[in-house]
Write a structure and sequence with these properties.
about 160 residues; alpha+beta; Immunoglobulin-like; 4-stranded antiparallel β-sheet; about 20% helix; globular
């Protein structure tokens, strides 16, 4: 009996830390109403020192237009990261983009930030259109954008 209890306690102790390593974070970007085609968005993460960490999502399927997401392009080109499999359709006027990202718990409250760059053909481009810190204090908080983003929020 003692052996069984020891095995159960040990297996629980080994499994619980793995469950706490990462969590799903839902990022919601609502676009303003505007005239023109769908917007291209780059949603990416920066480290506490401001350097690029990773791309979470690219909205817009034609790679030839990614160059208009200048802040993200500069960051990715320095890192050498591949963005295969991180793309979807562009986001239309007044629409909402929801992304679920699995992020390490170590990033929460550690100074990491989520950035969204936007661009619309013949409508302009906005580096850091909206930025929010990855913090428990910001959970559910909405920030406004400077360009095509009406609001950006993060739920954990």
């Amino acid at each position: 009996m003692k052996k069984l209890i020891t095995i159960l306690l040990l297996s629980t102790a080994l499994l619980l830390p793995r469950a706490a390593i990462a969590r799903d974070v839902i990022i919601t970007a609502e676009l303003k109403s505007y005239r023109g085609p769908g917007a291209y968005l780059a949603v990416y993460l920066t480290k506490p020192d401001g350097r690029y960490d990773s791309t979470l999502w690219i909205a817009g399927e034609k790679q030839k237009y990614y160059g208009h997401l200048r802040g993200w392009v500069r960051a990715v080109s320095r890192s050498g990261e591949s963005v295969d499999g991180l793309t979807g359709a562009s986001v239309g006027s007044g629409r909402t983009l929801n992304i679920t990202a699995n992020l390490s718990d170590a990033m929460i409250d550690a100074g990491y930030q989520i950035h969204v760059d936007t661009a619309v053909e013949d409508g302009g481009e906005h580096t850091n259109d909206a930025v929010v810190s990855l913090s428990k204090d910001n959970k559910g908080m909405t920030v406004g954008g400077r360009g095509f983003i009406r609001s950006l929020s993060v739920s954990m």
